[in-house]
């Protein structure tokens, strides 16, 4: 079964809602029907921008998908500062990033919490973009596959194979995030291939459907080589997604020489 490629722009804590409208308008104007026919394209703005993005996408019937960068474990209640999957679903979000390394490192998110967030997203029909990946020390010790698969197993504990089939998993080596230090296509394929093999082992044919993205300094000049690898189905694009021309060029990797 052919998997539809996905390019998702993780804006992180950048762009207010006015700037978000300007960027989405530029993307809407630049992308053509051919682009949306060739792949799925998504933006993942800060929470405060999502309502504005929804209004624009719905109003102008733009084929762009969107989502959020994090989600609460609980559906509602006394959780000051949190945003639930229920709320994100109501805003028309397709995706939610779960377990990004910046949240694991700066907000104490452990594997168990990531697992609960995956389940919260699935409960309300959101597609988790589950982030996994190793730091520099682990890579230098040659333990990147074992480390990443342990994160994957923990995050997917108790998740049904039918749900796993519809997931997106982003392999993001921490040493490549925001550093300009991109993993080589072979390095990225090694871990993305191992992720798919583990899913086949545990969830059988869900492995043919699940999409595995690479993330970490993906840009217009390295995307085409990464996308040639058999187990890389797209990208989680940080810095390069804030520049509309660069992001469009990343999404048009198929046209690169
Ligand atoms: P980067 O970020 O493309 O700026 O390296 C990727 C990510 O953290 O999702």
Task: Throw out a few tags for this protein.
single chain, 257 residues, alpha/beta, binds 2-phosphoglycolic acid
Characterise this structure.
It is a single chain. The protein is α/β, with parallel strands linked by helices and about 260 residues long. About 45% of the residues lie in helices and about 15% in strands. It is built from 13 helices and eight strands. The chain has an eight-stranded parallel β-barrel, surrounded by five helices. Strand 7, helix 12 and strand 8 form a beta-alpha-beta unit. The mean pLDDT is about 95. Bound molecules: 2-phosphoglycolic acid. 2-phosphoglycolic acid binds near residues 172, 215, 216 and 236. 2-phosphoglycolic acid (PGA) binds near residues 172, 217, 236, 238 and 240.
Layout of SSEs?
Layout: E1 6-10, H1 17-30, H2 33-38, E2 40-44, H3 47-59, E3 65-68, H4 85-90, E4 95-98, H5 101-106, H6 111-123, E5 127-132, H7 136-140, H8 144-155, H9 161-165, E6 168-171, H10 185-203, H11 206-209, E7 211-215, H12 223-227, E8 234-237, H13 244-251
Parallel strand pairs: 1-2, 1-8, 2-3, 3-4, 4-5, 5-6, 6-7, 7-8
Helix pairs in contact: 1-3, 8-10
Bound molecules: 2-phosphoglycolic acid (PGA).
């Amino acid at each position: 079964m052919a998997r539809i490629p996905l390019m998702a722009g993780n804006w992180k804590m950048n762009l207010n809602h006015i700037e978000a409208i300007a960027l989405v308008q530029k993307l809407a104007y630049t992308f053509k029907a051919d682009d949306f026919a060739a792949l799925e394209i998504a933006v993942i703005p800060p929470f405060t921008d999502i309502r504005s993005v929804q209004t624009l996408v719905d109003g102008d019937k733009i084929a762009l998908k969107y989502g959020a960068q994090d989600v609460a474990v609980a559906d509602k209640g006394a959780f000051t500062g949190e945003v639930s999957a229920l709320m994100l679903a109501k805003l028309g979000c397709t995706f939610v990033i779960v377990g990004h390394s910046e949240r694991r490192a700066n907000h104490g998110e452990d594997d168990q919490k990531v697992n609960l967030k995956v389940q919260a997203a699935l409960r309300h029909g959101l597609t988790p973009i589950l982030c996994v990946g190793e730091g520099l020390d682990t890579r230098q010790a040659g333990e990147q596959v074992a480390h990443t698969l342990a994160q994957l197993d923990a995050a997917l504990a108790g998740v049904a194979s039918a749900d796993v089939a519809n997931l997106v998993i982003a392999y993001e080596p921490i040493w490549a995030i925001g550093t300009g230090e991109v993993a080589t296509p072979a390095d990225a394929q090694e871990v993305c291939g191992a992720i798919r093999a583990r899913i086949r082992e545990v969830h059988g044919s869900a492995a043919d459907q699940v999409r595995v993205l690479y993330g970490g300094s993906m840009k217009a000049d390295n995307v085409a080589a990464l996308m040639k690898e058999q187990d890389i189905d797209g990208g989680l694009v940080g810095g390069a997604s804030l520049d509309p021309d660069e992001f469009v060029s990343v999404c048009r990797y198929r046209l690169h020489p």
